[in-house]
Amino acid sequence: MRICVVGAGYVGLVSAAVLAEWGHDVTCVDNDEEKIAQLQSGVLPVYEDGLLEMAARNRSEGRLHFRVDLAQALTQRELVMIAVGTPAGKNGNPDLSAVWNVVKSLKECSTGQITLVIKSTVPVGTCEAVAEFLYHDEERFDVVSAPEFLRQGTAIRDYLAPDRMVFGCQTSRAKQVMQDLFRSLECPVIFTDWHSSEMIKYAANAFLALKISYINLIANLSEKVGGNVQDVAQGVGLDRRIGPAFLKPGVGFGGSCLPKDTRALVALGEENGVNVWLLRDVLQINFEQRVHIVKKLEEVLGGLEGKKIAVLGLSFKPNTGDVREAPALTIISRILERGGKAAAYDPVVDMEALSREIPFIPALDPYDAVSGAHAVVFLTEWGEFAKLDLRRIRGLLKFPLLIDGRHIFDPQALKALGFVSQSYDSRPVLEFMSAK
Ligand code: UDX
Ligand code: UDX
166, exposed or middle or buried, with CB in 10 Å at 0-12, 13-18, 19+? Predict the structure, then answer.
C-alpha cells in the first residue's frame, strides 16, 4: 500500500518504520523541519530501542521516506495515518488543532479512495466529526479510529506484539483494510464503533493511572501504620482479577499519556455533568507524591535554603529520554523555589537543553551530582543506578539522606551503609536525624 504517516513522534515513527518493514511504501511527514532534517540524515530525534536500525534499513531499501511538505506527501496515497500530538489544551481538553490541520489538508490535497486512520488520542466524538467534515461532498473517505497502546521504551515490541488491537470502523471496506494491514499480528482484535474505540484508549490509560495512585495511597497508609508496601503490592497483584502490573509504588506517573488522558476524562465528565471525583483523586494523589519528596527533604534538612540536592533520573521512566510531565521537573522546580540548588544527572536526557528551561546544574555523572550535596533523590529507575557504588555516594554526600522514589535499593542495605533513607518500604525506613 502507499501510506502516509503524519507526525514523526513516538507513535508516528514506530508506525512508519513497522509498516515499511512489512513492505509498504511509507512517507512519514512532520511539520518540524529540524526533526525531518535529522531523520533524513539518519538521526532519530527520539531514543527508542531498535527503532534506529529498523528505520535505517527501510530507508536504505527505499520503502521509508521523510518529508516536511504535507500536501505533497498526501498525494497518491491509499491510506493516511494521523499520529500528530494532541497535547493538553484548556481545562484539560486535548488540543486538536494539529489533527484538524491534517484532515483539512487531506480533503484538499488527496485524490482517489482513502482510508484515514486516526492513531492520535482524540476525544470521544472526534472521528464522527472528522467523517462528517470529509463526507460532506464526497464519499471517497473511510475513517478508522485505531488507538495505539505502545509504551515508550518498548514501543517496537509493543507494536509488534500488542495485547489487543482496537478499531472503530463504520464500513466493511474499512474493516477489511485494517484486517489486511495488520494481518501478521496475532492478538485479540476488537472491531467497534468510533465512540467506543476512542473511549477505550482513555479508559485504559486512566485505569493504569488509577492503579498507580491506588498503590501509592496504600504505600502512604503503610508508611504511617506499618507494613511493607512491596509485599502488599505483591500479595494484592497475585490475585488474577487484579494482576501484578502497575502496582509499583513511588513518585508516581508522568509521560505524555497517563496524566493528559486522565485529565481529558475529568474534563469530559465535568462538561457532561458526570461525577469524576475518582479520577480527580487519581491526579491529586499523583501530584502529592511529588510534593511529599520535597517535604521530606525540607523536614530532614531543616529547610532547603542554600542546600544542594542531587537529583538522579530526569526522564518520566527509564529507557526513554522523554521528560514530558516527568516527576523530576516538578521536584526540581520546587527545590529551586525554596532556595535550594539542584544538580541533576540522567543517562539519556539532554541535560544542557533542559537546564536552560529549569536552571539546575547538569552533572557529568551520578557521583558528580552527589558531590557536596546534602541529599540525593532517585526519580527514575535507570538500570545503571542499581549498580552505583553506594559507599562512594555516602562518602561524597555532606549529609547522608537518600530518597529512593522508585524503590531501586534495599532499604536494609541503605541503613547498613549509614544512610538516612526514605523509600517506599516502610519497615525500617526513617530514622529522623536533624541536619539543622
Ligand atoms: C502520540 C499521539 O499522537 C498522541 O495523540 C497520544 O496522546 C500520544 O501518542 P506521540 O507520538 O508521543 O503522540 O507524540 P509526539 O512525540 O509529540 O509527536 C507528535 C509529532 O507530530 C511531532 O513530531 C510534531 O512535530 C508533529 N506535528 C505536530 C505535526 O507534524 N504537525 C502538527 O501540526 C503538529
Ligand atoms: C502509557 C501506556 O502504558 C500505553 O499503553 C499508552 O499507549 C501510552 O501511555 P507510557 O506513557 O510510555 O505508556 O509509559 P508507562 O510505561 O505506562 O508508564 C507511565 C508512568 O507510570 C511512568 O512515569 C512510570 O514510571 C509510572 N509507573 C508505571 C509507576 O509509577 N508505577 C507503576 O507500577 C507503573
Answer: buried
- For 184-223, write each residue's pLDDT tens digit: 999 999 999 999 999 999 999 999 999 999 999 999 999 8
pLDDT band with cut points at 50, 70 and 90 for residue 138: low
4 is catalytic: no
Amino acid found at 118: I
pLDDT for 137 beyond 70: no
Q: Which atom of ligand 2 is nearest to the CA of 326?
A: 23
In tens, the pLDDT along 3-19 reads 999 999 999 999 999 99
Number of alpha helices (DSSP H) and beta strands (DSSP E) in the chain: 18, 14
CA 17 to chain centre: 20
**Best residue for ligand 2 mutational test, from 151, 263, 385 (most atoms within 8 Å of Cβ):** 151
Asked whether the beta carbons of 42 and 59 are under 8 A apart, the reply is yes
Amino acid at site 63: R
For residue 373, how far is its CA from the centre of ligand 2 (angstroms)? 30
Using the mean position of ligand 2's atoms as its centre, give its distance from the Cα of residue 207 in Å.
11
Say how many C-beta atoms besides its own lie within 10 A of residue 138's C-beta.
Answer: 8
Q: Bigger pLDDT: 226 or 371? A: 371
Are 80 and 106 a contacting pair, CB within 8 Å? yes
The number of CA neighbours under 13 Å toward the Cβ of 68 is 9
Q: Name the residue at shortest CA distance from atom 16 of ligand 2.
A: 151
Query: What does pTM read for this prediction?
Result: 0.94
**pLDDT digits over 35-60, tens only?**
999 999 999 988 898 999 999 999 99
Q: CB of 251 within 8 A of CB of 285?
A: no
Q: DSSP character for 401?
A: E
Closest by alpha carbon to 340, among 392, 393, 293, 286? Answer: 293
Nearest to 256 by CA among 336, 176, 148: 148
Answer whether 84 contacts ligand 1 (Cβ < 6 A): yes
Residue with cell 552527589: 370
Cell numbers for 412, please give them.
536494609
